[in-house]
Design goal:
The protein has 8 helices and 2 strands; from the N terminus they run ββαααααααα. By secondary structure, it is mainly alpha-helical. A two-stranded antiparallel sheet has the order 1-2.
């Protein structure tokens, strides 16, 4: 939660009101309602997923939105892909969040997460058919249905969001910053790129 929040702590004799002006998570409830257990379960889950770090370059107003979407992306990659793909997806999400009028400010978190993952998956040949002889078989194969179902969104809506993200960030298969490690390190692909550069 970002912004200002008033917290009241009281008993029968005295009452304190505290105004918090920073990013916090507040768990409300009476004594004995399980707040301590909830906090413990939350900490354990965060340990499993790995803490989502929010770059300082992301504007304050978008940091909570980024963190929420990033947690969804990281969870999917942990279950279906690996750490390298997590980094690629979060790299795309960070670039979106750093924009002056960030597009992630509006819209459903699950749709942004699905669109981000699918944009990277398309660019790294994880979905669809690979016919080029210059592309080695990807380490992972997923489908649009797997991604959409994981985030609870429609395939059509996810595809549109993916297209928006790829156009916004100029994600392309020949740009190294968006390549998967296995594609970036492919000997056949590197040879092709050297020949291509030599012709310019």
């Amino acid at each position: 939660m970002l912004g200002k929040y008033s917290i009241e702590v009281k008993n029968k004799q005295i009452s304190f009101v505290i105004t918090v002006k920073r990013s916090v998570t507040i768990i409300r409830g009476f004594s004995g309602t399980g707040k301590r257990v909830t906090r413990h379960l939350y900490r354990e889950e965060r340990k499993k997923m790995g803490e989502i770090r929010i770059p300082k370059t992301i504007p304050v107003e978008y940091r909570q939105k980024y963190a929420d979407i990033a947690a969804l992306v990281a969870s999917f990659c942990e279950n279906h892909l690996d750490e390298e793909y997590t980094k690629l997806c979060l790299q795309a999400l960070q670039k979106l969040a750093r924009k002056r009028s960030s597009p992630i400010a509006k819209g459903n978190n699950n749709m942004w997460a699905a669109g981000t993952v699918y944009a990277i998956a398309q660019n790294c040949y994880l979905v669809g058919k690979t016919t080029s002889r210059l592309i080695e078989r990807p380490k992972y194969r997923i489908t649009s249905e797997i991604v959409a179902n994981a985030f609870g969104v429609s395939v059509g809506g996810m595809s549109e969001k993916s297209k928006t993200i790829r156009e916004e960030l100029k994600i392309a298969k020949d740009k190294e910053e968006w390549m998967s490690p296995e594609l970036r390190n492919s000997d056949l692909r590197n040879l092709f790129m050297r020949i291509k550069r030599g012709r310019k």
